[in-house]
TrEMBL record:
Belongs to the short-chain dehydrogenases/reductases (SDR) family. Gene3D superfamilies: NAD(P)-binding Rossmann-like Domain. This is SDR family oxidoreductase. PANTHER family: 3-OXOACYL-(ACYL-CARRIER-PROTEIN) REDUCTASE, 3-OXOACYL-[ACYL-CARRIER-PROTEIN] REDUCTASE FABG. Pfam families: adh_short_C2. It comes from the Bacteria. Coiled coil: none annotated. SUPFAM superfamilies: NAD(P)-binding Rossmann-fold domains.
Amino acid sequence: MRLDLSGKTALVTGSTQGIGAAIVLGLARAGARVAVNGRSADKVTKAIEQLTAEVPDAQVVPVVADIASEQGARDALDQLPRADILVNNLGIFGSADPLEISDDEWRRYFEVNVLAAVRLTRAYLPGMTERGWGRVQYIASDSAIVIPAEMIHYGMSKTALLGVSRGFAKAAAGTGVTVNAVIAGPTHTGGVEDFVYQLVDRDLPWDEAQKEFMRVHRPQSLLQRLIEPEEIANMVVYLSSPQASATTGAAVRVDGGYVDSIVP
């Protein structure tokens, strides 16, 4: 299957590292013009340098904006007025005692993980529907379904994204625009390494720490290892393609079998 996104412009939020950077790389390899987003101009520049080292002929647009805020969303739109593909990847996570999470922290997780995606969807979806083609995706998590006791505020925000995704898919019904959520399982990123070491012995080498984390904290995983960012990106690139035209309103799992369900 050849996935050709030539002529399409894609915005991936929070894409200077981790899953976002892997998604941008995958979309660029498929021929899309890609917008790399981050809050820091230095980080965006570095990410673009790394991307073009991998894909020398990549068409890249820097979008320096803190999209977790209303002003940041406006800044992003000024830099990229049109997008054919929107991947709402930006997210924060961390462990916390459920009874100690403050009101401000609950609001922060909702603002960053949910409302930022809603704002950009409102901004870009009308243009997609007018043109009769578009792709909107939300990077959700197994935590949306299997709420972790150590980060229920994060789980709540990812559950909300599933509802947001399904709702906007209905708003785009019959227009040629698809809207989907990608349920990512436990994934190997720098941030996740820090998170793992919050929960296991910091003196353990990484390979042992990962195994201990999966054994104790994510025993449901059928993969029995952390997922690599490229494995999430592969699904996102497919869902961004013309070949995925009949997949919409879905929550597609790339979770290593973590969610104990025989239906999507």
